[in-house]
Amino acid sequence: MRASFYRYFTVLVVILGVSEVAHAGIYTFTDANGVIHFTNKPADPRYAGMVRVSYLPDPARTPPPARAVDPNRYIPLVKKTARELQIDEALLRAVIAVESGYDARAVSSRGAVGLMQLMPETARRYGVTNLYDPAQNIQGGARYLRDLMGKFNNDLSLALAAYNAGEDAIVQYGNRIPPYRETLMYVPKVLATYRRYKPASR
After folding, report:
1. How far is the C-alpha of 45 from the C-alpha of 170, rounded, in Å?
2. Cβ(128)–Cβ(144) under 8 Å?
3. Which of 20, 84, 89, 99 is catalytic?
């Protein structure tokens, strides 16, 4: 039985090594003897109930290897983006601190990704192709935040609420912060962090 397992494992390794096959995905099942079988062409009827799984990740959607979070390493990017987009550096730093804790690999339960926790649709809107790339993520988030400031007449509280809950939620509640527990906690937290960073950014 062990020999059979190693034989099928070898087949799997060969399959994984072929780029064209990798994009197709593999199928697997475990037989009555506990032997795991793999294939990219499920001719055996025992594979019929299995779902194809793609095992070649999309680099643009795959987080980089885990590493210690160091807020200072992203400050040059924040400064550069703030200068280019004419947006408050301290505000960007505050949003990043609250959104992700400066973890470029952060992913929320709702699918927001990266330093500024961009949703995929927001990323597409601002031309962000790699949500895990710190430069792209900060650039996209900063542009979105700047647009929100313009849309809500430079009302920082409303812009932050929109960043958290979505623009439609603000409009729905008559251009007021929506009564969502998360948003009601988020806005004061960002503002407090912003005030803390403000002297350092002058």
Report:
1. 54
2. no
3. 99
Question: What value does the CA radius of gyration of the chain take, rounded to a whole number of Å?
Answer: 23
Alpha carbon 166 to its chain centroid, in Å, reads 17
The answer to whether the pTM exceeds 0.70 is no
Q: Based on the residue annotation, tell me whether 99 is a catalytic residue of this protein.
A: yes
10 or 107, greater pLDDT: 107
What fold characterizes domain 71-201?
Lysozyme (1.10.530)
Other beta carbons less than 10 A from residue 19's beta carbon: 8
Measured CA to CA in angstroms, residue 104 lies from 68, 142, 194 at distances of 10, 15, 20
Question: Which pLDDT band holds residue 22 (cuts at 50, 70, 90)?
Answer: very low
Q: Helix (H, G, I), strand (E, B), or coil: what is residue 53?
A: strand
Amino acid at 198: K
Q: Where are the domains of the chain?
A: 2-56, 71-201
- Output the average pLDDT for the chain: 79
